[in-house]
Amino acid sequence: MDTTNRSIVMLGCFDTKGEDFSYLLNCLKAQNQRIITINTGIMETAVDFPIDVDQIAVAAASGDTLESIRQSNDRGRAVELMGKGAAVILADLVLKNQITAVIGMGGGGGTYIILEAMQAVPLGIPKFCLSTVVAKDLSRQIGVKDITLMSSVVDVAGINRISRLLIRQAAAAITAMAETKVDVAADVKKSIAISMFGNTTKCVDKCTELLREKGYEVMAFHATGVGGATMEALIRERVFDAVLDITTTELADELCGGILSAGPERLTAASEIGIPQIVVPGCLDMVNFAQMDTLPKEYKTRKLYSWAPDVTLMRTDNKENQILGKQLSEKLKRSNAAVEILIPLKGISQIDSIGEIFYDPVADDALFGSIKENAKGHLPVVEMDVHINDEAFAKKLVERLLKIMQ
Questions:
Q1: Could you tell me where the DSSP H helices lie in 7-65?
Q2: 3-state helix, strand, coil in the chain (%, to 5)
Q3: CA atoms in the 13 A half-sphere facing the CB of 172
Q4: Is the pLDDT of residue 3 over 70?
Q5: Which residues face 382 on adjacent strands?
Q6: pLDDT digits (tens, 9 = 90+) for 132-155
Q7: Is the pTM of this model over 0.90?
């Protein structure tokens, strides 16, 4: 990839961290990097390096003004708006193909601004944050982005023996990441996203094997909430050519308040982008909770199974399955590309089969009936008298996917 006329973006609060960013800038220049500087601080700024995008421009990009943000005297609002504005600036730089990587440093507020801004940067463009709050749970701020965090150990509050070392290492790291060439296999036909769970692993493994034999690249996403959300985000970034959504269990967690919800946008990206997809109601027989004693009171008398010491599964009932079937079909109706639903009539998870704890044909029938009723006249539904983990089902999934991809 030619990076001759592109730059590493250095962003952060230059008003309070000027000395630190000046040192970082010099470290990046020592690595022969071109730099774009973005100031997200709101106070008067005096630094010894040029600022390419000043705080006035960042504030304006948020839809507000720097003066208004200052006069509000509301730190939380300032952090939120400057993060939002920086994201708009970065999105524009990405669109213009002007950046190779992004690096920032900060404390609590600065880290929030940096991570918020990095949400606008797609997969593959390196994102690095040197932060004082790495030990905190930053999962919500990071979201589904490929962001690298590094602890600053000491506060970002002036150069000293420790900060000097770590900032130099951060500069070296982002430089190496920016200069890494992408290894794209020349023999890969197309890329396919596939969703999986422990309860559908056998099916997913077989599908992956069959697709790879035919020269396709397969990327699996663990349906743990973050996994499904990441898959949806990458679909929107047009990373894939098709989707084999075998494990849609996150819809059940969203409906029932489980811990693995991927949010209301799950199962919408492929339809919106317009790429072919095969969808299975895999593991919609279960909702995921943590330890048994964490279950909501209203679920204590339901059919439960301890999958692991920290994972409790709850069997979905007839009413929930009717809702889930409708949701699945309604989401897929919006697609302007080829889509099919495949239903394995003998069970939709490893523990939903004859003799297993979640085997409940009546509940499954409620789900399948709802899918067919709501898909009728809009979507093709293929039923097979097999279990989801039977080899015959995996073969059919691959066969149907390849057909609609043509």
A1: 14-30, 55-61
A2: 45, 20, 40
A3: 6
A4: no
A5: 342
A6: 999 998 988 998 899 999 999 999
A7: no
